[in-house]
Structure formats: C-alpha cells, structure tokens
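Session log. Operator J.P. requested a structure for one protein chain; no other inputs attached. Running the standard single-chain path with token output.
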Amino acid sequence: MSELESLHFQSVSFTGIAPGARLIVLGAVHGNETCGTQAIRRVIAEIESGQLGIVAGSVTFVPVTNPLAYARHQRIGDRNLNRNLVPTDTLAEFEDRIANWLCPLLAQHDALLDLHSFHTAGEPFVMLGPQDNRGTLEPFARSGEETALALRLGVHRFVDGWLDTYAAGVARRLAAGVSACEADVHYGVGTTEYMRAQGGIALTLECGQHDDPAAPAVAYRAIHNALAHLRLTPAPAPSAVTDTEALRLYQVIDRAHAGDQFARGWASFDRVRAGEIIGTRHDGTPVTADCDGYIVFPNPNAQPGQEWFYLARSSARV
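Structure written below.
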C-alpha cells in the first residue's frame, strides 16, 4: 500500500435535539501541531461516554485536518494547507485534495475554531479577523460576534491585521518582480479567511509552543468554552476574559537570502524598540524596527522569498 492509499479524511459530528449554532473545530491543519488533535480526541471521548452532552445545534470535529503532514510529523505535506485554501479541479498537491473535502465542510457551519501551535516560545493568543468593513480584500459584518467568542476562549492576547498586512507584503513582492506563490494575495487565504467568505465567524487559537505540555490543555479549555458560549452544551456560559492585550500586525519582512540571520533567538511577542537591530542581511545590512512594538512569528528557517517575521504594535481593538 502506498503512502497516500493509507490516508483518509475523518470528521466526527454530534447534533443536539434543539436547533442551534453549527461549530466546526479543526486540529493538525499543520501536521506537527498536535495540541488540537489531542484536545479534540479528549472531548470526543467525553461526548461519546455521556460525560458531556450536546443539547443544541451541532459540532463537527476534525482531529487531523492534514493527514499526510501528520503522518510525516511535519508542518506540511506538499505545501502549506493554510494558504490559498480553495476547491480546485487541478489536483497538483495533496493539500488540493484536502481543500476539496474541507472547504464544503467548512461552508456547512456557522463558526470555526482552528487550533494551532507555534515553533518558538511564547504565550497563547487568538488571531482575530477584520473589523466590520465593505472593502474588497476581506469584507466582514460579524466582528462583534467573533470578538465575543474570542474573549471566551480563555486566553488574554489578541492579534489582528493578518490579511491586509500579508497583502501589503504581496504588493512589495510584486513590485520587486517576485513571481512565486507568495506574491499572490490569495496565498494569504487559509481556513479562517475561507470561513468568513462563506458568511461564518472564524478564529485561530495559537495554543503555545509545539511541545509545550500545557498547549493541549489550552485547546481543551477553548473547545469547552466555545461549546458553552454558543449554547451547544448545558454548561454555564463562560465570562469574557479581562486584562486583555490587543496587538495589530502592520508589517511583514521577508527573508531575502539564506545568509540573512536574526540578531538573537527571537520569540513571538518579544518587545522591540525603534531602531533596534532584529537581524542582518547576508551583505551586512542591518534590519531594524521602525518603531516600538513586537516581533511576531519569527521563523529562522524561512526560505528566501518567504515571510521571515512580522511586526506588531499595540491596538485598542479588544
């Protein structure tokens, strides 16, 4: 049996007697991010044993969204599933097959909770979508509902500005003559962006560092809180967190050359000061912060032409 022949897609759904919201929870969109998988399987076991009841609406769990990457214990199979997510008739990569299965499934739901982790140290955070707008990039009209759910997942840090910051990076790459997929704004569309385009609300919860033993517990608590907030379970509705920290991404910096190096081992949300050296280009040119803020998603293993790190600053969003 070939590697692909041994793979399959799995979703597990539970429907309550009363009508209600339709929630979908994803784990292992990236195959080496398994905290969501562990938490999802724990909650499924609770429902199946009768310990947890789904009394209204429905919930669908996808423990392993990318089975190829998961089987290989790596981030991707053939490419990043959380980029350019759209059904296609051209099956060039395994993630295209996932998209053709996953996208219709997402469209059947009202809300998405996508559980992830990250490769450098740091505290959990929620990625919010845009504020309500009628623009062309990511029009949206449900930010109030989305933010209300985000405030009840159990974490205190919130980050927004993903797609428009990514789009600005695309514009810069196009101006520089880059022709790779990273120079296509649609390459910034992942699970949450696709879900919002179908009329739903969607949150990415980054539960901690990949190997942090606390990350599965963060994911588990978030699932329970989401179920209770949406009234799918009889548990008391969770209160909104207090002492929140809101940040907005505003710039993405690409790695231009394999010789580009960070000045030190950055972790997401490390503070940077205006003028501080973040890294050095292969020719010795320093890469500095343009203002006081934070470094987000630093990737010392980024390939040339790909995102190296993001910059964020404080926001009054939440």
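Operator note: The chain has two domains: 4-243, 247-314.
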